[in-house]
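Please, does this match?
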Amino acid sequence: MALNRPFSYLLYILVGLLAFSCVQEFPATVPFTRPQPPANSGPPKEQPAPPKRLFIANDKVRLAIDLNMGGAINYLSEAGSNVNMINNVDLGRQLQTALYGGPYPYSVNGKDPVEQWKYLGWNPVQTGDYFNHPARIVSYQQNQNLLYVKTIPLIWPLFDEPADCVMEHWIELKGNTVHVRSRTTVNRTDTTKYEARTQETPCVYLNAPWYRMVTYTGMQPFTNGAVSEFTDRDMITRYATENWIALLNDQGRGVGLYKAGEFRYRTAFFGNSRAGNEFDEASSYMNSDGFIQIDHNGQYEFEYTLVVGSLTDIRQYAYNQPRPATAPNYRFVNDRQNWYYTNTYDQGWPIPNELNISWQRVDTTKANFRVSSPLVFWRTADIPKIYVQAAFKTQATIARIVWRKPEEIDFYDIPGRYVDFPIIGDGQYRVYEINLAGQPGWEGVVNQICLLNPPSQNRFEKGSLMRLKSVTATRP
């Protein structure tokens, strides 16, 4: 989250939410036009606190977190260099965690959000807020190769408002890599069930010289195929089929972001210059951009690795990691396995060995609801059947599985993109075997699936439930 966020970033937030509304059904209150900053956007901003950095280093990398920036990473360089790659023009840059939830807008304790960011909703940001207030440090530890920091983030669009959650980060140097583990514990008094949103887990802002956005987007991952390079300025989602993305300079060096099993990333560039340092407005951006369903009392952990060096270094690190799953193997024991909902909800956190989902639409003016997987990379030839282990309590007699292909920006509920299967609505667990081999459209690569109630069954939806234990390619 950028303190004086460039208008291009603002355009991303508004147009991006609109673009995804047809898929993810974001709130209808999101404006369709790009607003101008108000003449008076609230109390004046504070002067940023002076840096209070804690450094760790080895023979490859030098890194620091800043206790006056919520413990976010605000310094990263190759060993032997004094050039900081991280952009620090405001408290919304850095390399940090930022989360998103409802309502939109979000007001609390008599505070209303600054106008140009009010549709961000509940938006805890690790570093601080729009007004330059730094987030609160609860505790920290430091040794030669490891940093730990516990932070109470601030709500970005509100004036000095602590978020009702706590973020913890463990940061460890390993050769030319930085391994980060993040845990956020939420404790909101608002128990409303809001829809999932994409998160910044993490967001990475580098200085303008690292303007080259590079990843592999092809359909033959892990075969050393040609990478894609982007130098556009717009905030754009990338389908990264090798689970990494990178920001590089003219010499081909920079930072790669690897996240196991993650295929959804975003990139952008702010400003007009490809020169500048950590206190200049121009910067490049990348993030891990998956959907998370934020509960009022949930706990969310994720890990990622930063690889410092050349494109070869970054890609080789990804190639050395375990390969992502090539078929569905979701077993909902302790968490949602990154599945999420559109226009419906489950019983919430904690997850009691199943997902207990309302099998009906929250908003009946919309065509349907969806129970969606995260992005994946599956070859359909390897998946002749999918098994859904579920208990339906409903008068409906049919359910539907829908799939997307990488070139499609949405789920299309059209022939060739779904299969209906019979269900029994007596509340008893069964394994539903869905035969996909030979089905029209079940070919090539699919990158997401979802479950829903076909429109023909909507008359039976009131009070319907689905308890979902697993979705797998082999019989459970």
